[in-house]
Amino acid sequence: MKTNPRIGWSDFALRRNRATDQASRFRGKPEKLLALVRRHWAARIPGAGRSNLSQVVVVPIRQRGLSRLFSSAWIPIEKARRFDVDLRRRQPHEDPYLHITARGRALPVRRASVVLYSRATLLEDGGSVSGDYDWEIVAILAGPWENEPMMPLTMARNYLRKAGGTYAPYSARQLAESIYHWAGFVQRRGP
Prior knowledge:
about 30% strand, alpha+beta, 11 strands, globular, about 190 residues, single chain, four-stranded mixed beta sheet, YaeB-like fold, 6 helices
């Protein structure tokens, strides 16, 4: 495994990070996040459903001022007001889903991590890559949780090998913990 891998943004993650209605975003320039990932690369851990560092990794970003660098939009459901539901697709070729948002004060960012997929993993099942990288950023996790669980719909998309998903063998416990955790939070409605 390379000690100095080529790391870049996936087109998917870069597009989502620019949107104002995403739950977790990086507020700085894309190059700054790449530098942070490289700086914290040695602390990476296997992604959800993975047992090693060869396919999917989560890089924790540990430094002061996370709330200036990252934004989160998660609200505890008991503090949310006026729920809204929209029909969404992450990408045109993916199945639609219901996206629920609400008004309220988002929880502060105390933890941030970046999820990266290896080139080989992105190319599985006819997938594609965004550049000549060994690893690509696919998601940003920012909020108050030490170990933010993957969203249940994302887990299902991956496990079932649906369009936009990358297979991982999640356990029933991992899925149940995800469902239970996320049932208590809603995403804040964008500006």
